[in-house]
Amino acid sequence: MRGDRIMSADAGTAIIGGGIVGLCVALGLAARGQDVLVLDGRDRDMRASQGNFGLVWLQGKGAGCAPYARWSCQAARAWAGFAERLSSQSGIDLALCQDGGYEFFTDRQEFEQFCQDLHRQADTLGNEFSFECLGHSDLAHRLPGIGQQVVGATFCPLDGHVNPLRLHVALRKACLASGVRFTGDASVAAVQPATSGFSILCENTKTIHADRVILCAGLGAAQLGPQLGFRAPIRAQRGELLITERVADRLPFLSSTIRQVDEGGLQIGGTKADADVDIESTDQMARLARHAMQVWPRLADIRVLRSWAALRVMTPDGYPIYQRSADHPGAFLVTCHSGVTLAPLHATRLADWIDGDPAAPDLEAFDERRFALS
């Protein structure tokens, strides 16, 4: 039966986008026995998968959206097993460290508001979620050397981080080992419903035919989505990072804006700007450095070696979109900005949903039609 499908089309399922999200979906569908072809773009394409901070993060996720809080919590709890399986399949250590993380605040009002958000998150998740809100004195006792301007911090024991570049490579190797096929330099210009399945036109004039098509193209889905009946309300948000020299002493904490990677250097990040170009801003870089020194003054003597900017993939409310096309059955839209955190579920439960498994989760809360009602 699988051979018959390949004879009538180039792929049973074509996934447009070879980033972390697309590779996770490909891996999950391959595990279900599907014939999968990933269409990957050019090396110079803007990729959130290669510019992100690498966080596995739960704090604040879904404080105002219970389904997203539960989805994120399931993902965070699944990460240890997912990393073990992926390392076994690929031979790559993902450098997962999930010992808990901090959110630091220099503004008291923001600190108090975030603590309220975490209480709302806890109301949804119950015993699955725990956190601490620490004033400056308690924080200084736990982390001697914390900056005097830090008024408080929150801590969640489920938060952690990975090496996102290793994750990307490991996913690709695991996909190849699972029978997933790849077409590189395949920038997609158009997707058209055909008499049977879909025709995918690449900019190099090659046309690929598939029974199903899944858009995991990040920002590119904003252009391709409407061709398949999706609204695809996706926008770019620029984030910027500083990278320091390697530091022998281990940083005694992980935060959403400061982390020490497994090679020893520090990443400092946290900017958010509505922009569609991945070009750094000197003012934003200076702000990042100031904030890092406010949190941990010892960083003042560490050299910054390089910096970069990358574009996040954002929806209007910040939550994922998982959508079946009502106009063209067999077409799907998958997009989110938390591709690292949600990776374990994208590689399992989301693949179940795409395949229509009766045991798949109910993902109606992430239908893009929610925006038409707002």
Annotate the secondary structure layout.
Elements: H1 2-8, E1 11-16, H2 20-31, E2 36-39, E3 55-56, H3 66-90, E4 101-105, H4 108-125, E5 132-135, H5 136-142, E6 152-156, E7 160-161, H6 164-177, E8 181-183, E9 188-193, E10 198-202, E11 207-215, H7 221-224, E12 235-246, E13 258-260, E14 265-269, H8 282-295, E15 304-314, E16 321-324, E17 331-335, H9 343-346, H10 349-354
Parallel strand pairs: 1-2, 1-11, 2-8, 11-17
Antiparallel strand pairs: 3-7, 4-6, 5-6, 9-10, 10-11, 12-14, 12-15, 13-14, 16-17
Helix pairs in contact: 2-6, 3-6
What this model shows, in words?
30% of the residues lie in helices and 24% in strands. It is of the alpha+beta class and 374 residues long. The strands form four sheets. Strands 1, 2, 8, 9, 10, 11, 16 and 17 form an eight-stranded mixed beta sheet that branches. The chain has a four-stranded antiparallel beta sheet with strand order 13-14-12-15, with helices on one face. The protein has a three-stranded antiparallel beta sheet with strand order 4-6-5. The longest helix is centred in the N-terminal third of the chain and has 25 residues, at 66-90. The model is unreliable at 1-8 (pLDDT under 50).
Largest sheet: 8 strands, mixed
Question: What is the chain-wise order of helices and strands?
Answer: HEHEEHEHEHEEHEEEEHEEEHEEEHH
What Rg, in angstroms, do the CA atoms define?
Answer: 21 Å
Mean pLDDT: 92
Kindly name the structural category: alpha+beta
Percent helix among the residues?
Answer: 25-40%
What percent strand? Answer: 15-25%
Total strand segments: 17
